[in-house]
Amino acid sequence: MAVAPQTPFALCINCEDVFPGVSDTLDSLRALLVGMDRTQVLLWCARVNEKLSEQLAPPELAKLNPFERFRRRQQVLVRHFFNPEQVEKINAFFRKEAAKQKTAIVSVPMLPTVFFRGQVLELLRWVCVFCPDIPDTYFDIPEDRTPLAKALLIAGTLWNRRIYQRAASAPAEPSQGVGRLLVTFRIGRDQDASALDLTRALARGLKIFSDLLPAHYAKYTKRDFNNDFLSVTGLTIKQYYDCWTAVMMPVITNAAKSALDLFAGPYFNPKTFCPPNAPELQALFPKFIALKSQTSDELKSALLKGRKPEEIDPLEPYSVRPLMPRPILRLTEELALVPDLDCLAQSAMLGPLFHVLSSGAALNEVFGAFGESFHEYCGSILKGMFPAGSVLADRVLCPFLDTNKNEIADAYVDYGDAAVLSEIKSVFVDKAAEGANPDTYLSELDGKYISGKERDQALVQLANGIISLAEGSRVPSGLTAEQLKQLKLILPVVLVRDPLMDAPLHSRYLAEEFANALAPDDITGNNMKKGRFFVTPLTVMSIETLEDLESAKTDLRSVIVDYSAACPDRVLSLRNYLAISEYQDKIRYSERLREETSQQLERLKSYFAPIGS
The pTM is what? Predict the structure, then answer.
């Protein structure tokens, strides 16, 4: 199955539940970390984080559903960190909690969780701040890992306390309630989601920045993208992605071959990583490492922001942003590691966009060019899914224009009596979420998706387009009068670049705002009525979902209609619906992405040994 659900609301165990007398406080964590070697703990953070990722799907896990895979990963990691007596305490805790769920008035599905990504990122933060360098100390045997197990459990509690418990207990005005929930779920999803697929990051990044962006960049900035990128990085786009492919290759190629070996991991020797039979990469790799890596001390400085360690409040907002531009850590001259695969994938996929900002091009112009490139990328996927025949008219109109050549919507997919009407959004709202301020985040969300300062955004644009069709005030240029007369059902979709728009409640919030903008004449079943058209609830679709639908054994209309029947209130995101419904066996990873990544890997794979060798 290609689609994995977001990590569900998990029941996490505290350190005191396994190690009585060890409190789940920052003081306790500091006391543990000052006796550990920073390099070794960071190495283990990277190992655990990689094993939690859906990147690794060895045969023993690939045949399981996502929830069973999650449980199996937990079981494997627990065996590496806890002795039988401690394992029994863990099992007893979850049995007790499961019994509570059976008698609860409102029962929430429970997924027993000992290890999770947010926990590892939390520990990574404090390791950089508190751990000294203590050479020749290791965690190679299970008994030596007990302090590390305690540190991981405490870090998990601190993360949970900061993300969820603090948000739940903080007083808020009623008007802040929605914003507080949205920003809390976004931050939680951001720091606890499984890593973006590395092959997807490579293929999409290559397509956008090699094939699509240069033309739009020239149009917006009057500059040459390839020259600007080379001047800033010292690398061409091809060289840049060759280096990324080299770093990612061991994880990608070994993912389906190996069991969950905790002693393998995403680490390598920068000096010997490129072999002698790859002289061009040997010359380029030091430039790439200098561009995309940082030392532990540099990461510590970025996290401290000029403060002393004791001045940091463990409940203050914490972002992994310092890892995004430089996701590789250089621990020594001969040891580098990837502490978080999602930061690695995001940096590979979006890095060129932020590098060229240093070239002197105007920010708005660069992001405008990127937005046009993303529109073109999405349009090419839709047209590939619904190719025009030699006789039949195009089923995909992208953009969807009226007879005055004004845009009604970004895309229109024709199903005869039904149509998918889509707006495409490439916007970023990450910075607004960092401070966990509900007003700031809600304002940014509204400005980027609903109604901006200068013009209406996706939701209002969609609603206005439907209203104009219902009123007959705008005539589509790509449809005949007979086609328009046949149209009865409109399926509105906002197609988003931002994967965190799949975070809980975001789909519901945007669907409600869309309904407000549409102001339907009536509600019929799960659909709204506007003029003579029936309109389904708004669907928020991530680009990852659209990519996977390229190779799906189904069609876009069926997916949206069934999603609307099962989740008319949009409490469940589309991606999670696909993962837990009958569609889980129909959605397949995009064959196009697989082929494009395979071509890139094929050029380089003969040179490289696995990471860690």
Answer: 0.89
